[in-house]
Amino acid sequence: MIMHNPPHPGEILREDVLPELGLKIAEVARRLHYSREMLSRILNGRAPVSPDLAVRLERAGISTARLWLSMQTAYDLWQAEHREQPPIERFSEVA
């Protein structure tokens, strides 16, 4: 199965969630008790959604913490799989 580049979860927040809420970044940051600067970095894909932010989003009624973290993990894993990695020698199976 080929996995296509998943979107950064911050992009989903920026493009889908915030417009639906009709709120500006500063207001969302205030309500989440989160730094406006850090939230902006996340929304622009320059920082990951942390477990703390995921819990705050869930408590604010914006999906579940597990969903936000699974989207972040999918994004991070895809990025890692597409970066150059050193040659890795497989471990032999242990009986």
Automatic annotation (TrEMBL):
Cross-referenced InterPro entries: Cro/C1-type_HTH, Lambda_DNA-bd_dom_sf, Toxin_antidote_HigA
A Pfam family annotated for this chain is HTH_31
Keyword entries, A-Z: DNA-binding
Name one molecular function that GO assigns to this entry. Answer: DNA binding
Q: Which PROSITE patterns match?
A: HTH_CROC1 (PS50943)
Q: Where is the HTH cro/C1-type domain?
A: 20-67
- Give a yes or no for keyword Transport in this entry: no
Which SUPFAM superfamilies does this UniProt record tie to the protein? lambda repressor-like DNA-binding domains
Q: Which PANTHER family match?
A: ANTITOXIN HIGA-1
For this protein, the record's NCBIfam families field holds: antidote_HigA
| Name used for this protein in its record | Addiction module antidote protein, HigA family
Q: Which organism is it from?
A: Azotobacter beijerinckii
